[in-house]
Amino acid sequence: MSLSLNIDYIAKNIQTYIDQENFFDIIDQENIPNILEKANLDPTLFKTLLLQGKTKYSLPKLYKFVQKCKVCVKTFEDAINILKTYETCLKLESSSGLIDFFTKHIENQKNQTQLQNNQTQLQNEISQFNIQNAQLMNEIFKCHNENNQLQQRINKIATIHEIPLKSDFDTAYNFLKELSKKRDNFLEGLTKKRDNIKMPISCAVGLSEKRNSDENTILLEACINEDFQFVKSLTESGCDKDAIDKNGNNCLLLSSANGRLDIVKYLIEIGFDKNWRNKTNGNNPILYASLTCQLEIVKYLISIGADPNQKNNNGCSSIYAASQAILKSLNILFHAAPIQMQKAIMNLHQLLWHQFLVTLK
């Protein structure tokens, strides 16, 4: 009875003996199987026990000792570790196939778990996207309704004030041009107040933003046509001053190229940037004025601080642009003139070029 109790005690406290590395030294070999049958070992203790036993007993004996040993297995990793112990300590090469099988199983399980996690995450993202999409659709629907209501109000206002909102570009241009004249007359006391308010109302309902085939708005076309009063009326009435044409030019660039100093001065006075650059080609007002030999505009722009050394996207400066423009014009005259006039044209070229350089300085 005492022996049985002793075996139970040793089995229960077997880790102490293993930690002290004296289990196989103090336990008789005939008692080892009985103790190990009652003991509960984890994979690490089991491996340590076998490594200690190998130093004293042969593999066949060691194998008999652990035949009925209970090893706690909680995970596939535990099972693999036990099989590796069999393979290394007991030379059971048959464990190799099981190790590979369980290793692949664990890897597949991890992949499956990762796939499930990814699917769950994807489902959550899809659900979130559907929620956001529904919210966005509601907002779009709301904006659509508000836009319809706004358009209805705009159409009503346009109808009341006899504004041709559905007209083509030329009709809109001429209509606003006529309103501009009436507005000028109103300021002189020659027309009624009703005619004066039509211009800002027309701009407010979008008539001034109609575009022609060159993507010019009414304001851009007025600048091209060098119509100062029309430009002034449009900007004061609330048209889109920042509109650009299909080439990326705004009204200041167009006016600089066309040589209307009064329009250029006015646009800069109401806030246009004297160094504004075309995003497509990098041209600015002084470059355009130089390219078209608009000397007075070049002088004015320099006087208010415009930078004549700025270059466009092709590396062209104001000086280079002016030289090319002058050379091109004089080259045409040179080849068209009689021989006796060609020397005079060359002298004119030198004079013009000198005058332009003086202006830049």
UniProtKB/TrEMBL annotation:
<keyword id="KW-0175">Coiled coil</keyword>
<dbReference type="InterPro" id="IPR036770">
    <property type="entry name" value="Ankyrin_rpt-contain_sf"/>
</dbReference>
<feature type="repeat" description="ANK">
    <location>
        <begin position="281"/>
        <end position="313"/>
    </location>
</feature>
<feature type="coiled-coil region">
    <location>
        <begin position="112"/>
        <end position="153"/>
    </location>
</feature>
<dbReference type="Pfam" id="PF12796">
    <property type="entry name" value="Ank_2"/>
</dbReference>
<protein>
    <submittedName>
        <fullName>Uncharacterized protein</fullName>
    </submittedName>
</protein>
<feature type="repeat" description="ANK">
    <location>
        <begin position="247"/>
        <end position="279"/>
    </location>
</feature>
<keyword id="KW-0040">ANK repeat</keyword>
<dbReference type="InterPro" id="IPR002110">
    <property type="entry name" value="Ankyrin_rpt"/>
</dbReference>
